[in-house]
Design goal:
The chain is α+β, with helices and mostly antiparallel strands and 253 residues long. It contains seven helices and 14 strands.
């Protein structure tokens, strides 16, 4: 199973930049999207079906043009769950899960902490999400949580760790949470295969950051530890340029 995660920063904008042609070439079995910034009636679902993805599931934010997640699949899932049933988490459309025969795939869009109010919200979300996943793992042991975590895990995951140490996304408390979350039973699939620096998944639109590769690795495909031996490959796909993020891929046997 080829699984891709991609924060598209607006699915309609990404489609105008060639997203669907790229999707057919990349040919994942399942793609998890974040920041779709649209409701289902605003999305060209027939074009997506024609691109090879008849099974489409969307969980949009209540606020128009904001947040939202989706899962597009070639394979029909046995069950799809929208949200987490935690009210303060779900109105922004940040979680969707598809259960297949022996594996479940979640698309996650963790809040950013761009100001103090949002940072407090982010920490509350992170704590409640950890509790939600701790309970979910008892029911669904083979879980892959794909998405934009809005956190760089280690210094190797950010182009300038010194000057960004007080910036949300690289705060010690955020990094400690992500570290604890991974140690609760998940593998960072990309780092499992690649220990090299200068591998990022998001770049600012300012100051030529992408051209100079001054980025952050904030997108992860986290794989349950008991699926670890089934991972065959995990890569970042920076050549795809439909967003300020790029896609990330994991393959599971």
């Amino acid at each position: 199973m080829r699984i891709i995660s991609y924060n598209v920063n607006g699915i309609r904008a990404a489609i105008t930049k060639g997203f669907l042609d790229w999707l057919q070439q990349a040919n994942p079995d399942v793609i998890c999207l974040q920041e779709i910034k649209a409701t289902e009636d605003q999305i060209p679902t027939e074009e997506i079906t024609a691109a090879g993805y008849p099974y489409q599931y969307y969980f949009s934010a209540q606020k128009k043009g904001y947040s939202g997640v989706a899962i597009l699949s070639k394979i029909k899932p046995n069950k799809v769950v929208l949200g987490t049933e935690v009210t303060h988490m779900d109105f922004e459309g940040r979680n969707i899960r598809a259960d297949f025969d022996d594996i479940s795939v979640m698309s996650l869009y963790l809040p950013s902490g761009t100001n103090l109010d949002r940072l407090d919200h982010k920490f509350k979300y992170m704590d409640d999400f950890q509790n939600y996943i701790d309970a979910l793992k008892n029911q669904i042991p083979n879980l892959i949580i794909c998405g934009d975590y809005n956190i760089c895990h280690e210094a190797i995951d950010i182009h300038d760790p010194i000057r960004n140490k007080t910036v949300s996304g690289f705060l010690p408390e955020e990094r400690a949470w992500l570290d604890k979350f991974m140690k609760s039973g998940f593998i960072d699939s990309f780092r499992h295969f690649n220990k090299e620096p200068h591998n990022y998944s998001w770049w600012s639109y300012r100051a030529g950051a992408r051209g100079n590769n001054k980025g952050w690795r904030i997108d992860y495909n986290l794989v349950s530890e008991n699926v670890k031996d089934r991972m065959s490959r995990a890569v970042i796909l920076p050549e795809a340029k439909h967003s300020d993020h790029c896609p990330i891929l994991v393959e599971i046997d």
